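The instructor's notes for this session suggest beginning with a concrete chain rather than abstract definitions. Hand out the sequence below and ask the class to guess, before any prediction is shown, which regions might be ordered.
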Amino acid sequence: MTHDRLRELLATGLIDRLDARDKALLERRARIKASGEKPSRLEPRGWWYAVPGAAYEGVFEALELHDRFPVTLEEGADVEDMSWRRGAYPVFITPELDGWRLVFGNLAEVVGWDWDEWMGAAERLSEHCGEAQMFFQDEAAGSDVWVVAEKGRIRRRYAAESDPEWIGEPLPWEDLVVDDEDYDPEDYEAEPNEGTARAAYACEQLSVDPTRIGPDTRMSGHGWLALNAPGIGHKGLDLLV
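After discussion, reveal the predicted structure:
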């Protein structure tokens, strides 16, 4: 199937009326294209989640996503720029990257902007996928957040906007402030669990840094686009292929 043909199927809504056989052919198309695709840098806007690649099926239930559609990494990378209609926003679940799948795109509409909604989504994802991570960066506002959740509970969290906060026991790869040879408690009283303070560093240690995806990244399978509202379909979705 050519790129133009795929765009036509989406734009006219024919994707939404395909039977099981035709949908299987589309998934085969995505697998074939993905097998020859080279991993490339991703730039999620706002925040993203990471889940173990083998357990990604839990993402759809945890975030209540519907009408999944198979795509390559390149096809889903610009998910934030795709059109939407009737409150159905597309979310991108990437192919497996170094053993992980990233989830991003329109998360403000899908999850919400409230802190409890962010944490609730991380906990649900970890409950359905065994583990989940969340990363948020806003350099302009000076915000950094990274979260590790396991089996429905937050295990470790760092959040900073005005006052930085570390929750939970430090992870083995973290460098604690109190262990630094230059640390002087008379100059600065650090918390015992005060560790890594940047999401950009944490995501590289924990799973995948999307900005460092490249030729050395192990990639397998294809990705998925899914919508956060049922029964709307993909008609009019501007797939950038």
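Then share the key points. Residues 144 and 198 are 6 Å apart (CA to CA). Residues 3-140+198-227 form one domain.
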